[in-house]
């Protein structure tokens, strides 16, 4: 009987340790909550952390929370006919740890913000001027396209990590403002990544993936 009680106690202790381990694992897998008023990014710090180290809050300046320039149109004279003016932690150090950023997107007539993803953020976009055809595609295996034409004042959401795009099908310029749920949302433009990687992905691999002739892949590599 005594041995049975000891085994029960050992089993209970082991079960408790498992629960504690699972709880700790869950806590570490979540973003930490805000533990202070702000954490201004110290871009000169040699400390490597997930994000940016904080500078001494006693040295905080109002400029750490300020950016000017979204009233200015971006230069859309490029192959895509669009320009993104980002306002994230790289522009406003005070955004560090706050989980939010902003961008202005300008579109020339028939310009586009090509298919891309934000690996670390959901995006919510509103049209300030003109009209845009926008959409996102769900993950495998459905790959369903959700798309809509947006006019001035309309709002659309692009879920985190999904391929999405915007296209100005009108003869006038268009302007949009996007808010993103990360201080540093990141961007991966699909065409640039697949056909412009360094070093390049093998043309044979891309030809098979896209089911096209390798000569076409080689041509795309040249023009990218």
Q: What's the oligomerization state?
A: single chain
Number of strands: 10
User: Mean pLDDT across all residues, rounded?
Assistant: 88
Return residue spans where pLDDT drops below 50 for at least 5 consecutive residues: 15-31
> What are the secondary-structure elements, in order, as H or E?
HEEEEEEEEEEHHH
The percent range for helix content is: 10-25%
Derived from helix and strand composition plus strand pairing, the structural class reads alpha+beta
Main sheet specs: 5 strands, antiparallel
Order of strands, widest sheet: 1-2-9-4-7
Form type: globular
**Strand portion:** 25-35%
Number of helices: 4
Distance between the termini: 77 Å
Alpha carbon gyration radius: 24 Å
Write a structural description.
The protein is an alpha+beta fold and 224 residues long. It has a domain at 187-223. It contains four helices and ten strands. It has helices at residues 2-28, 190-195, 203-210, 214-223; strands at residues 82-87, 101-107, 112-117, 123-129, 132-137, 145-150, 155-158, 163-167, 174-180, 188-189. It has a five-stranded antiparallel sheet with strand order 1-2-9-4-7, with no helix packed on it. The chain has a five-stranded antiparallel sheet with strand order 6-5-8-3-10. A hairpin with a 7-residue loop joins strand 5 and strand 6. Helix 3 crosses helix 4. The radius of gyration is 24 Å and the shape is globular. The relative contact order is 0.13.
Q: Topology, pairings included?
A:
Layout: H1 2-28, E1 82-87, E2 101-107, E3 112-117, E4 123-129, E5 132-137, E6 145-150, E7 155-158, E8 163-167, E9 174-180, E10 188-189, H2 190-195, H3 203-210, H4 214-223
Antiparallel strand pairs: 1-2, 2-9, 3-8, 3-10, 4-7, 4-9, 5-6, 5-8
Helix pairs in contact: 3-4
Protein name: Germin-like protein
Family: Belongs to the germin family.
Function: Produces developmental and stress-related release of hydrogen peroxide in the apoplast. May play an important role in several aspects of plant growth and defense mechanisms.
């Amino acid at each position: 009987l005594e041995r049975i009680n000891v085994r029960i106690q050992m089993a209970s202790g082991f079960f408790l340790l498992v629960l504690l381990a699972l709880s700790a694992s869950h806590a570490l897998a979540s973003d930490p909550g805000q533990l202070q008023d702000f954490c201004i990014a110290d871009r000169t710090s040699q400390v490597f952390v997930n994000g940016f180290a904080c500078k001494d809050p006693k040295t905080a300046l109002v400029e750490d929370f300020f950016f000017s320039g979204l009233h200015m149109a971006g230069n859309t004279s490029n192959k895509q006919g669009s320009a993104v003016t980002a306002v994230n932690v790289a522009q406003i150090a005070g955004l560090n740890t706050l989980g939010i950023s902003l961008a202005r997107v300008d579109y020339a007539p028939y310009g586009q913000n090509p298919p891309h993803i934000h690996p670390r953020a959901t995006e919510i976009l509103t049209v300030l001027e003109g009209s845009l055809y926008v959409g996102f595609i769900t993950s495998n295996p459905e790959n369903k396209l959700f798309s809509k034409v947006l006019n001035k004042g309309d709002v659309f959401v692009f879920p985190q990590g999904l391929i999405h795009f915007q296209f100005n099908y009108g003869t006038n310029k268009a302007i949009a403002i996007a808010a993103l749920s990360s201080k540093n949302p990141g961007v991966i433009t699909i065409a640039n990544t697949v056909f412009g990687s360094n070093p390049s992905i093998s043309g044979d691999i891309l030809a098979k993936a896209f089911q096209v002739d390798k000569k076409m892949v080689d041509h795309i590599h040249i023009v990218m």
